[in-house]
Amino acid sequence: MTKATTGSSPKATNSLFEMGSYLRKGTSGSGGQQLFLQGGRQADVFYRNRWAFDKMVRSTHGVNCTGSCSWKVYVKDGVITWESQAVDYPTNGNDMPEYEPRGCPRGASFSWYTYSPTRIRYPYARGVLVDMYREAKERLGDPVLAWRDIQQDPEKRNAYISQRGKGGLIRINYEEAIEMAAAAHVYTIREYGPDRINGFTVIPAMSQVSYGAGTRFLEMIGGVALSFYDWYADLPPASPQTFGDQTDVPESGDWYNSSYLMMWGSNIPVTRTPDAHFMVEARYRGTKVVVVSPDFADNTVHADEWARINPGTDAALAFSMGHVILKTFHVDRQEPYFLNYMRKFTDSAFLVALEETPDHTTDHTTEQSPAYTPGKFLTA
Question: What structural domains and CATH numbers belong to the chain?
Answer without folding.
Answer: 2-39 (no CATH), 47-114 (2.20.25.90), 250-308 (3.40.228.10), 346-377 (no CATH)
